[in-house]
Structure prediction request, 110 residues.
Amino acid sequence: MTWRRLVVAGVLVVALGSVAIFGATTLLDPAPGADTYYLFVDPASPDETPSDDEMVRYANLSPGQQRVFDRARTTNESAAIPSEVDEQVWIDSQYVRYQNRTYRAAVAAP
Prediction:
């Protein structure tokens, strides 16, 4: 009987762990859908001098916006913007100032 309980407990732990990992992955990086916006980030060229109205500082982004920006910047690919993250900041300000560098940010709509 003890051996059976151990097997059942092991199966339950693996099943619950799989559900937890799958659920966390889905929440952190949702599958793109019809209403998903995407952020593209490229380093600005040295001759681009955006005005203060065109630029937002990284520190002024919300934690969710920072995660999306970091993902787009470090992967050199577009990053899906989760529905709970406001994309308007990159529409209003087309540049982000991060660690003494300026990046051009563009939002693509579905």
Notes: Strands lie at 37-43, 55-57, 79-81, 95-98, 101-108. Residues 1-30 form one domain.
